[in-house]
Specification:
There is one protein chain. The protein is α+β, with helices and mostly antiparallel strands. The protein has four domains: 40 residues; 123 residues, Elongation Factor Tu (Ef-tu), domain 3 (Beta Barrel); 59 residues, RNA polymerase II/Efflux pump adaptor protein, barrel-sandwich hybrid domain (OB fold (Dihydrolipoamide Acetyltransferase, E2P), Beta Barrel), CATH 2.40.50.100; 84 residues, Helix Hairpins (Orthogonal Bundle), CATH 1.10.287. Helices cover 40% and strands 25% of the residues. The strands form three sheets. The protein has a six-stranded antiparallel beta barrel. α3 packs across α6. The longest helix has 39 residues.
């Protein structure tokens, strides 16, 4: 084989071709970059984070936004509040008038009548009891017939049944009176009327209709985050969470939490055992006791949007890259899946029923 110098003496064209210095430098830079990247992926620490979105809510169900409903049916007679009104516990919100303006008087008269019937029945039962004792003594002395003694006992039993029936009627009347006594709807606790859902004083409402939307004034706030299912196995209660509240400028660098600015700290309180209707898992995040507090209530209200990052184990950057590339989230489409399953079930039923039908026809 000819030496390297002979190549250029024998082939003049080859001697004029030289590798550009720029390409050589670029190739060296690429090689150095690959080496640095590989070393960085192996040795650079990376904090695994599970991103999610959610909102601020109240931990106690009584502290959440709730509907105030009508306890009885009737006509709205008067409103005591408007949208945005601040109310205290027990303050009147609305008054409902029954369609029959004389209903309370009639119920009171009915109650008095039932009480009189009970008193008369008890008096008659007491008198009938004396007759039973009298006929019993005469029967034992042979001065009264057995039939008279048994008739007196039957009369006592009849009066006792009347007393029981009258007491049941009294209970029903008192229940109706108690229902009508709640015609004035009152605030369950201190808070604010967000919206009045019913109409003016000519509006008819039924029992259970929503009259207004009420928000309590003070509440214990938590954040509910929805996390992808691929990250849930790595999350457990007590994990740290970095939160970015809506309206608060913040910068989050995933993998290096120490670089983040404008973030607030939280702690995972609980994890739902099953996925929500959107296919994501819900986490409840509470304030971290050893870190700074969250923004106060006027600045971050119930329902405000939140973005969160659950901080997990510290691994190498290469391991996290491998996990992300090999564990893509799945896309769930429940209605389509249910439709496909129903079609598969129908086709299987047709296949199973086909040969059977042919055999029956052959027979």
């Amino acid at each position: 084989m000819l030496p390297h110098a002979d190549h250029f003496r024998r082939f003049t064209t080859l001697a004029t071709i030289r590798t550009p210095r720029v390409l050589t430098s670029f190739a060296i830079l690429i090689a150095v970059g690959i080496i640095i990247s590989v070393v960085g992926l192996i040795y650079i620490p990376w904090v695994q984070t599970a991103p999610g979105t959610g909102s601020v809510t109240a931990l106690d169900p009584r502290d959440r936004v709730q509907n105030i409903t009508a306890m009885v049916g009737g006509r709205i007679d008067q409103w005591y509040v408007t949208d945005g009104s601040a109310v205290k516990r027990g303050d009147p919100i609305a008054r409902i008038a029954d369609n029959d303006p004389m209903l309370l008087e009639r119920l009171a008269a009915e109650r008095a009548q039932v009480l009189a019937e009970i008193a008369a029945a008890e008096q008659a039962m007491s008198t009938a009891g004396l007759d039973v004792n009298r006929f019993g003594s005469l029967y034992r002395e042979g001065l009264a017939a057995r039939r008279d003694y048994e008739a007196a006992q039957i009369k006592v039993a009849d009066y006792r049944a009347k007393v029981a029936s009258s007491r049941a009627a009294l209970k029903r009347v008192e229940v109706n009176l108690n229902r009508q006594s709640v015609q004035i709807i009152r605030a369950p606790r201190d808070g604010r009327i967000m919206q009045i859902n019913a109409g003016d004083t000519a509006t008819m409402v039924k029992q259970g209709d929503v009259l207004a939307t009420f928000a309590p004034e003070e509440s214990t706030r938590i954040v509910e985050l929805y996390i992808d299912g691929r990250d849930v196995p790595l999350i457990k209660p007590g994990r740290r969470v970095r939160l970015a509240f809506e309206g608060w400028p913040a910068i989050q660098f995933s993998g290096w939490p120490s670089v983040a600015q404008g973030m607030f700290d939280g702690r995972v309180r609980s994890i739902d055992l099953s996925a929500s209707s959107n296919g994501l898992f819900r986490l409840l995040v509470e304030p971290a006791p050893d870190r700074g507090p969250w923004p106060r209530e006027p600045f971050v209200r119930l329902g405000a949007k939140v973005r969160g990052w659950v901080l997990m184990d510290t691994v190498s950057a290469g391991f996290e890259l491998w996990r992300q590339l090999n564990d893509f989230p799945l896309q769930f489409d429940r209605p389509a899946d249910e439709e496909a399953r129903s079609k598969d079930g129908a086709s299987k039923a047709t296949q199973i029923g086909g040969p059977k039908g042919k055999d029956e026809n052959a027979k």
